[in-house]
Design a protein that fits this description.
Elements lengths: L5 E5 L5 H16 L5 H9 L3 H7 L5 E7 L2 E10 L9 E8 L8 H15 L5 E6 L3 H9 L3 E10 L2 E10 L1
């Protein structure tokens, strides 16, 4: 009988293809109808294995949640990049592959990354979510995030409204 374990760890160069696959599948699932089709395809085309290899070890934290030997999701994080967020730390991206959603992996990954940021002294943490991504907004609210500043995200030439969720 095979047993699969769930683990959260730092990304390694060998994870690039798995990260690209999770990114592609989760973005297609999350943003179909939210980001115009041509813009979504352009953005996805820029985030293949080569881009992921450059991101790994590139200064921002990058954690993966692994199920067995398969990457089920990832989170990119570090010091807040925008002052408008009014946070010290930021979770830039947190995505779980569609087939692993609803199993608690996102919550576990969020908590692990948040704890890592707190350990670095970044206690006020924020995450941006596209305003039209109701599932992401509900996810962050369930975790205790309080809606904060609003802004716009540029994706392949399109400007999309976003909301920051703050955690203290």
């Amino acid at each position: 009988m095979a047993t699969n374990t769930v683990s959260i760890r730092r990304a390694r160069p060998a994870d690039a293809a798995g990260l690209a696959g999770v990114f592609d599948a989760s973005w297609r699932e999350a943003y179909q109808g939210v980001i115009p089709g041509v813009a979504l395809e352009r953005f996805l085309a820029r985030r293949g294995g080569t881009a992921w290899r450059a991101m790994i070890g590139g200064g921002r934290g990058l954690a993966v949640v692994e199920f067995g030997e398969r990457i089920a999701g990832y989170a990119a994080y570090g010091r807040a990049r925008e002052r408008t967020m009014r946070a010290e730390g930021e979770i830039d991206e947190l995505y779980i592959a569609p087939e692993f959603q609803g199993l608690g992996f996102g919550t576990r990954l969020f908590r692990a990354v948040r704890n890592d940021l707190i350990d670095r002294g970044l206690t006020r943490i924020g995450v941006w979510a596209l305003a039209d991504n109701s599932r992401a907004c509900a996810f962050y609210e369930r975790l205790g995030g309080v809606p904060g500043p609003e802004g716009f995200e540029r994706v392949s030439g399109f400007s999309l409204p976003k909301t920051a969720y703050l955690f203290t």
